[in-house]
Amino acid sequence: MLVFWQERLVMLAVPKTGTTSLEEALAPRAGLVLRHPTSIKHMVLQRYQRTIRPMLENAGGTDFETLTVVREPVSWLSSWYRYRHRDALVGHPNSTRGVSFDYFVTEYLKPKPAAYASVGQQARYVFNSAGERKATHLFRYENQPRLVKFLEKRLRTKIDLPRVNVSPELPTILSPDVEAELRAARPLEFAAWDLAG
């Protein structure tokens, strides 16, 4: 999470949406950088509103807007699957080795998924518990030029994004039946991406 005090902007760090690259590029420009632990770095919107926002307001910061980047849901899950397939995780409960992408997504949809499929939901960075959009600015991961243009204008700085935290290449094809299950079970994931336009 990055807080830009003068610009009254908070960038929420949705995992697997390029926010680590944005952090690398923009951390020196930010007034507050929350990196560790990952539960703070990747704080969802409601937790931000409960904890960080009051702190900023108590320090005299009003009218902060939030920025969220979301990724097409199947692509987002594919990135998680591939990231957890890397050699460094073999033998770890988070490893997806020996698990098909279909099985990974099916496990992800369970109320208590296995460790390797416990990846959260992008919608929690966009909507409140009532399903109302609360993120001020919403961008698609797939449209980096639009995001960079917005940030360059808002922060009055040139941005060169490094490539970091990249998932390994691996074919991931989701069967139509499992994709239908995903769409039925997680409509807000697709709604968030649609709203990001």
TrEMBL record:
InterPro entries: P-loop_NTPase. This is Gamma-glutamyl kinase. The lineage of its organism: Bacteria, Pseudomonadati, Pseudomonadota, Alphaproteobacteria, Rhodobacterales.
